[in-house]
Amino acid sequence: MLNRPEPTIYEISSPGRRGVTLPELDVPETPIPEEFVRDRLLLPEVTELDVVRHFVRLSQKNFGVDVTFYPLGSCTMKYNPKVNEVAARLPGFARIHPLQAPETVQGALQLMYELQQYLAEITGFAATSLQPAAGAHGELTGILMIRKAIHEGRGEPHRTKVLIPDSAHGTNPASTTMSGLEVVEIPSDRRGNVDLEALKAHLDDTVLALMLTNPNTLGLFEEHLLEMTHLVHEAGGMVYGDGANLNAILGIAKPGELGFDVLHINLHKTFSTPHGGGGPGGGPVVCNEELAPYLPGPVVTMEEHENHVHYTWQMPEKSIGRVRAFWGNFAVLVRAYTYIRMLGPEGLRAVAENAVLNANYLAARIKDVYPIPYGTRTCMHEFVAQGKIEGAPDVRALDIAKRLIDYGFHPPTMYFPLIVPEALMIEPTETESKQTLDAFADALLRIAEEARTQPELLKEAPHHAPVRRLDEVRAARYPKLRDVPGLDEEEALSS
Amino acid sequence: MTYIPTTDAERQEMLQVIGVERVEDLFHDVPEPYRFPPLNLPRPISEAEILAELHAMADMNVDLNHAACFLGAGAYNHFVPSVVDMIISRSEFYTSYTPYQPEVSQGVLQALFEYQSMICALTEMDVANSSHYDGATATAEAVIMALNVHHRRRRRVILSPTVHPMYRETVHTYTQGMGLTLVGEDTPRHDLKALAQLVDDQTACVVVQNPDFLGRMFSPSEMQALADTVHAHGALFVVVVDPISLGLMVPPGRYSADIVVGEGQSLGSNPNFGGPYLGIFAFRREYLRRSSGRLVGETVDKEGRRGYVITLSTREQHIRRAKATSNICTNEALVAIAASVYLALMGKHGLRTVAELCYHKAHYAAQRITELEGFHVLSTWPFFKEFVVQCPAPVEDINRYLLDEWGIIGGYDLSQDYPDLNQCMLLCVTEMNTREEIDDLVNALEEIANGALEAPPGGLTLSQR
What we know:
Chain A has helices at 9-12, 48-59, 82-88, 91-94, 106-123, 135-153, 171-178, 196-202, 225-234, 267-270, 330-366, 397-406, 434-453, 455-459, 472-477, 487-494; strands at residues 127-129, 161-165, 182-186, 207-213, 238-243, 262-265, 285-287, 299-304, 309-314, 383-386, 413-414, 423-426. Chain A is an alpha/beta fold. Chain A has a seven-stranded mixed β-sheet, with helices on both faces. In chain A, strands 10-12-11 form a three-stranded antiparallel β-sheet, covered by helices on one side. A two-stranded antiparallel ribbon of chain A has the order 8-9. The two termini of chain A are 40 Å apart. The mean pLDDT of chain A is 97. Chain B has helices spanning 8-18, 47-59, 82-88, 91-94, 106-123, 135-149, 165-174, 192-198, 220-232, 317-320, 333-370, 395-406, 435-449, 460-464, and strands at residues 68-69, 127-128, 156-159, 181-183, 203-209, 236-241, 259-263, 279-283, 295-300, 306-311, 376-377, 386-390, 408-409, 412-413, 424-428. The radius of gyration of chain B is 26 Å and the shape is globular. Chain B starts with 7 loop residues before the first helix and ends with a helix. Residues 459-465 of chain B have low confidence and may be disordered. By secondary structure, chain B is of the alpha/beta class. Chain B has two domains: 68-77 and 348-452, Alpha-Beta Complex (Aspartate Aminotransferase, domain 1), CATH 3.90.1150; 82-343, Type I PLP-dependent aspartate aminotransferase-like (Major domain) (Aspartate Aminotransferase, domain 2). The chains are: A alpha/beta, B alpha/beta. The interface between A and B is large, with 204 and 212 residues.
C-alpha cells in the first residue's frame, strides 16, 4: 500500500491548468441573461496527468477483494468476475437512454425479463421487480408492499406492528420506521434462533409483518422457521425476508417455499456484482402471487406474437408506485445476469455449499482460541466469533481487527450483531481457497498469542497501513466535511 | 465457471477438520422436504459463449454511438472523458466495501471527501453527503429530512408541478405511510407565486426544480422571493438542480436553498439505461444532525497525519436503528468517485464550457425549429438545454420517423405527464450534439412539416433526401 500522504485535488490545483479539451462552439452564440450567470465556480484547475496520478495513488491506499482476503460478515465479499465488467460496458448496454422507445431497446428488456425470471426461480417466488437500488431500498419496498396489501387489499389498516429480531441488520427497523410503522424487537433464544415464545406473545391482530433474515446474522439457519412463518400467517401477518444472506442457500432452499411472502436480494452480495466502495448495489424484490400486484414498477413483460416476442413495460395493477427514477441499476443487473448464466443451476448450488464449507472450516480452525457463541451448531455461510482472548483481558475485538491489517487481511465485521459482545463476524465466501483460509486462521491464532505476550502490538495496530488509528471522536466533534479554498474562509468569516 | 478454487482432496480435508462426512451434512437445519430443490435455469456456459450472447443482445439496442440523441428528461448524454472509466476500473476502488475500516480505505474515503467538497463548490452549500441512489430518491430523502427538522410536527409538503414527474412519484411512494398532505402539483406550471401562496405554518418544505423539468430557468431573484416566503413560515426550501447547469448558473446556495438535490449521472456516467445513477444531496450546516446518508470527515491519526473517516454515523441505521434519519446503507460511492474525477478534470473552465455549449446549441436548435411551419417552440422563457416543442403530429409518430429515416432519437413525449401538452416534445441538446446533427433534426422535422408522415413508407420523401 502507498504510505505517502496524498494532497487533496484542491492542493494540487494551479490557476490556468486544464484537464480536458472540448469541442469548439459550432453554432451562433445566444446571449445569456446576466442575472442567471454565476460569478465564480470554485472547482480545481488540474491537468489530466494530475488527475490520473492523484486517483491512482488514492486507489493504492485501499484494500479490495482483488487485493486481499476481505472476510466482512454479512457483506459476501466474493470475487467479482471480470467478464461482468466487460459486459456492463458494452455500448449497446452502457450507451442507451432509459426513455428510448421499447422497440429500440429489446435486448436490454430481454435481459431484464430473463433476470426477473431467474431471480424468481432461484428464490421460489412468483414475480420480481428489479427497481430497488440496494438492500435497504428493497426492504423499504417490501414493507410498503405488505403494508398496502394488508391495509388496502385485505382491509386491515389497524395492523401497524412489525416484529424484528434483535439480531437484525439496522436497516430493518430503519426501513420500518420510514414506512410509518411501529417496530417491536424480538429477542433471540439460547440457540441463536428467534425466541419462539417471545414471538408468540406479540402475535395479535395488530401485527403486520415479521422481518426475518435467514440464515440470520449469527450465520445460523432458524430452527423453527416453518413454525414461525406458519404462526405469523395464522395471526394474519406476512413474513418479509431480508436476503442479505442468500449466498448460503442458493440451490439449498427456496425462501418462497419456506413461508416468506416477499424477499429482497442483494445482487452486490450473492450475485457477484462489485460493491464499489459502498455502492452501487442492486436490491431486486421477489414476492408471491398475492403481493405481485403491489410491486413497484414498471416491470418488464413479454408478449408472444406469431413469430417473435416483444418486451415492454407494465405497471403492476396496485403498485405502491415507483421507488426511484427509471428502471433500476441496469449496469448492475447486466453483471448479475452474466454471473447466473455462467454458473447455471449446479454452479449456484456449488456456491452455497462451498461458502458454507469454508465458514465451517474456518470456525473449526479457530474455535479453541476464539469463543464462538452457539458454536455447537453448524453455521451457514458465516459465523460470529468473539474478540475475547483468555489471558488478555484488555484486548478487544477492535484490536484484533486492526492487527489483522498488519498481516495483510481486511478485518471482519466488528461489533455486529449487537447481541454478541465483542463480535467478530466472519464470512469467507466460496471463492477463497483453503490456503487463504489457513493463512487467515494462522494469523488469528498468532494474534491471540501476541495478545497474551505483547498486547501493545494489538493496541497500537495497525503498524503497516497508510495511516494509524484515526481520531473518530475529533471527526464527529469538529466536523470537517469539505475542503474548498475560497468557500471555507468565507464561512469562517461569517461565523 | 463457478470461481470456486477448492479441490475434492481439499474438500475432504476440510470436512475432516469440521468433523462431518459430506458437504450435505452441513445443511441438516434446512427442513428436509424443502432441501436441495431443483433450479430450473439455463445450463452453465463459458465466458466465450456468454459474451457472444451478450453482444447479440446489446446489438439489438439502438445506442447513442449510432444515433444522434435529443432525448433528456432526467438522463443525459454528456461527454465522459476516458480517464473517468479508467479510474473507476481500478479494482482497489470497485472491489472494496463501504469504508468501515478507515486505515485500509483511505483511497475511497479521500475520493468521497473530495466529491463532497466539489459538490459544495458547485452548489455553494455548506455540506454535501457522499450520495443517495439517484435524483428521485435524493428528492424523497430531502422531503423526509425536512419533516425530521420539524420533528414530524409539520405534515404539509409542497411540490412544484415541474419537478421531474418520476421524482414526484418517488416522493409519493416514500411518504405513503407518513400521513402527509402533498400539494402544489396542480398549480399552474412555472408559477412560483402560486406555490408561495400555498405555504403556511404547517408546511415542512417546498420543492422546486431549477431548471425545471420543462427546461425553464428561474432567475436568482425569482427563487430568492420564493425562498423568503418559505422561510417566513419556517419551512425549508428544497431545490432540485441539474449539476451541468451549475457550470453557468447562479448556484442555489446563493438564493437561500436549504437542501439541494439532483441527478449526478451527467457528471461522468453513461446513461446506462437508467442506472446506476447518483443522488446529489447538499444542505445547510444547521441541519447536519438531521441529515441522511453517509458523510466523510477529515481528522488525524495518532501521529498527527491527516486522514479521513466516516463520521456522524449516530444518525445512521447501523447505530440508531429505528430512530435513524434514513434506512440508507449501500449508496452510490463508485458513481460519486466518477463524479469526483469528472469534476476535477473539467475544473472551473471545463464545466463552464460544457454548460455554455449546451446553452448555445439548444438555443440554436430552438431558433431553427421556430422557423418551421407547424412546429411551435413553447419555451418563450429562459431555458438551459431543454425546451418544449408543439408538433403537428403525435410525438410517438414523429420519433419513429426520426429514428427510421434519419437515425435520430427524438425528444420526450410530454403528454405522458401533462395531458394538456398533447403533441408536445421535450427536446434536449448537449455538447455532444454537433451542428450537423441539429441541422439534420431540423431537416427531418421540416420533412414532417411537409407531410412526410402521411407519405407512403419508402416513397417520395426518402428519395428526395
